[in-house]
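Figure caption, in words: inputs first, then the predicted bound structure.
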Amino acid sequence: MKCRRCRQPAVIEVRRHNAGFCADCFVRHCREQVRRTLDDYEMIGPGDRVLVAVSGGKDSLALWDILLDLDVRADGLYLGLGIEGYSDSSATCARAFATGRSARLVEVDLPRDFGYDIPTGARTARRAPCSACGLSKRHLFNRAAVDGGYDVVATGHNLDDEAAVLFGNVLRWASDYLGRQLPVLPASDGFVRKVKPLVRLGERETAAYCVLRGIDYIVEECPMAAGNKHLGYKEALNAIEDQSPGTKSAFYFGFLDRVSAMFTPAARAEREGLRACAHCGAPTTGEVCAFCKLVDRAARTGD
Ligand code: AMP
Ligand code: FES
Ligand code: ZN
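Bound structure (adenosine monophosphate present):
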């Protein structure tokens, strides 16, 4: 197979584009896909300061690398989750990348700064680990951005992630989630803008990008995620994609183009009805936000 652009021998095939690429053209292709996503969804304005949430995995490091190459003012944010045998190596990858590119990495550490780790937090809150983790991440990404004066938080969610989440939400017709599942969520009272610039790239592509760019990333998945529903949805979609390449992207972008608007008004109304948490000031539906409740419960059981 030859490279679609330069006709040199291809090193990677992207079946959904029915194309192969040589190493240089593939890197350029990834950059262009991100550039196009940033433009199409007006993700980052001129002069915006961006905080990229970096886990040390392939997606977020590829994202940070591409944003820097596109001359976006992008610092990194690493959140230490206190997961044994996983968090240490993920921090090492995030730090090594930051040093290599002379980029700034902001670090927040759950055990050090908030007195709990994900396994303990999940147990005391009687939540699944991924739920306690997702809640902590959403809250702390936004808080770090507000505190640091950033305009935007960017995460490394890719096409496989977004299609799998969409699939799960459609199977249950979770209309509240469907209204929020957009590649860009505008800023609103207490929230900075949130963007997902990798929605046009699959995880095989972000992995290949990192390998070709010599970026060292943590290959292991989080041990707490094993067997969760999300992975099951990914496998199901992969089986379909295998049979007919392009289905995943048609499913996700078809939703964005033709369906999502039906669900956004309700989600927007919900966001506008929020008030400030009595403890930390973050937007919430109740008196105290879910994050503060989690920290409080973890502290009380820890005594
Ligand atoms: P996940 O929730 O693990 O699928 O990760 C989705 C995105 O959240 C990643 O691409 C990162 O942008 C961000 N992320 C996940 N874990 C961390 C972490 N420990 N620190 C900072 N960002 C993270
Ligand atoms: Fe959050 Fe694993 S990364 S539970
Ligand atoms: Zn709070």
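DSSP finds 13 helices and ten strands in the chain.
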